[in-house]
Every structure is written in structure tokens, then in C-alpha cells.
Amino acid sequence: MEFIATVNRGGYRPTGREINEWRLRSDPKPARKGRLLEPEVPEVPERRIRKGPTAFDIALGSFAKSQGAWNKQLSAIARQSLIALNSPAVRSAFDTSRMVERALGYEYDVVPGKPGTAAVYAPDKRPEKFVAHLRRLGWIERDSRGRYGVTLLGHALLKAEASADSGDEDSSVMVLAAEDELAYGQVLGVIAECGDALVMDGYLGAQELIHILAHTSASRFLIGDRLNKGRVTELALQINLAPPNEDGSVRELRRASFHDRFVLGEHKVYGLSASLNSIGKSMATLIEMPDTAARSIRADAEEHWSGGVVLARGLHPDDLTDVDGDAVAAGEVQEQPRIIRQEDGVFLHDGCDVRHRSQQAAQRCTKGP
User: Fold this and answer.
1) Which fold has domain 170-337?
2) What is the pLDDT of residues 126-178, one digit of tens each?
3) Are 141 and 153 contacting, i.e. CB atoms less than 8 angstroms apart?
4) Strand, coil or helix: what is 317?
5) How far apart are CA 206 and CA 213, in angstroms?
């Protein structure tokens, strides 16, 4: 379980083979004896085999045959007595030499012994080498040219190890309670601290975009491909009329297919558990991502941004001119585009009490600044 959890923290889901290989054979294989080629042949000692029946045996047999039925029982007793006298125990009590054997009529054939042979094995297998060990575990792989590379499993283990060493568990988490009027302002303040940021929110609202343009230096906005056409039109119009940020970066809106919500600042990356238009309405969290995760998120976000569809671009510094027609620096613009806010389905702007039905009407209004 610990192995699976570690790999999961690195962003990878291991296969059953990878799990069992680690569980059953995680260490390098030790040296092993080669396979058996020829089995051992045991030694056969020299032995003597007695030849046929002896004279003693013949005499005993003749004696038994000469008796009648009436004394069979007596013959059996006599035979058992003779056999007892001929037993190895009785013979050894007197003399077990060949002289006694000859007297009793024993003759033997000598069968010579045979020397044994040891078992034959193939050459011993060496201990598993380091590279072979890593390949077997699935941490590295070799291509057709004999070059090695780290697998997805290997990258996940390295990422998990780096995360543990850097103390990534201590990342900052901001809990945004429901019905908290200050929650949205806290998130807006974080975005402002991010400088020239990229805001990724699949369901970004028009009102939230107005606030970000007015109070932060975020210049790039990425929305999802499921946003309805009316909302996309509102966002695009706001970007078209937006001035450059304090650094002179042109604001831009793009669309791509993604799910999670992030704020990618100049130095930090934050993850949002809910869309900006839900902050303060339902419980959410704002998490400051640790360095290891931030690098991965940045790379993925830039891919989405590069492959996204361009929907709108804001005003360029060259488009903002003073009375004499000279270009005005982004930080020296005398007149900023009118900030329009949406409330209860109508559009309002400072200096005017009229409740405009459309954003275009509010922009063309001659009242107020």
C-alpha cells in the first residue's frame, strides 16, 4: 500500500505487474546455482553373492523329504533348530571366517564395485546487475538503440521523493467560507500580488473579469470551451476595451479545454477549488502550490495557453495617445476606459444612475467619467 500511495503522490497509477514486482522481488536477484545438467550417480561398493544351495541346504532338504506325514511337526522343529544353528548370529559366536563358511559349504561370487560421479551443473548465474534490476522493476527502459530513459513510474517515484524532501506537505491553504463577504476580496488580493498573471477559470464571470482588470495586473485569461456564447461575448468585449496592465502587457482572452482552476503568478501558483464567480457563495479553498507541483502546473498551463483559441486582445500601448497624437506610456494614460459593472442583470458605471440594459449602451453613455 505504501508503494502505491507513494507512486500516486508522484502522479502515476502502477499496474498489477509493477506492484507485484516490487512486493515480491524488490531487491536485486542474488547469485544462483546453474541448472542441473546431469544428476549425481552414487558409488556402488564391492559385494559378494552366494552361489546356489550349499551342501548343508541339500542335506536339510533331503532330511525333510524323507519324513512321513506323521512326523512333519517334528521335522519342522528339527529344521528350525538346524536353521538356528546356521544363523549368522550363531556362526559369529564361534567363527565367521571363510574357513567356517567352507566347512558349511558356502561359495561366493565377488561383484566388483563402481565409482560414483558428482552432479553436473551449468555455470552459476551472477547477481542481477544494477541496470537490469531497474529495468525489471519498470523504473527505466531501453530503446532500440540501446539508450536508456526513465519511465513514467520512475518519474513518479522521483517526483514523490523530491516532494517529501522539500516538505511539500506544508503548502499554504486558505479556506474561503460560504457567505463570507470578505472571501472574494481575499482572492482578488492574492491575484493582485501575483503581478502579470495567467488566470485559468473555465467559467469566469463578466463581473469577476471587470474586477480583475481594474484591480490587478493579470494580463492573460483562459476560459473553458463549454462557456455559453453570450458569456464569451461579454468577456471578449471587456478584453477588447481593456488597457494594458502596469507593465504595458496587452490583455488577452483565449479558450481551451481544461478543468481545474489556477492563478499562475510571476513567482507563485495558486489552485482554486471553485470558480471565481462562486467564491463567497459556497465553501472553497485557495491553495499555494509547492515548487515541484507548481513547475508541473506551469508547463501544463502554458501548453493549454499555446494551443488555445484567441478570442480577444486588449488595447496596445500604441493605441493610447495624448491630445497631440504622441504615444502615452501605459502608466501615464490620462483617460482609462470606463469601468462597467453588472448588477442584477443591468450594467452600471460611475457618475450615472441609468440602469443600462446592455454593456454597449453603458459604454456609449455620455454621463459620468
Assistant:
1) Endonuclease; Chain A (3.30.870)
2) 888 888 888 999 989 988 888 888 888 888 888 777 766 555 444 578 888 88
3) no
4) helix
5) 11
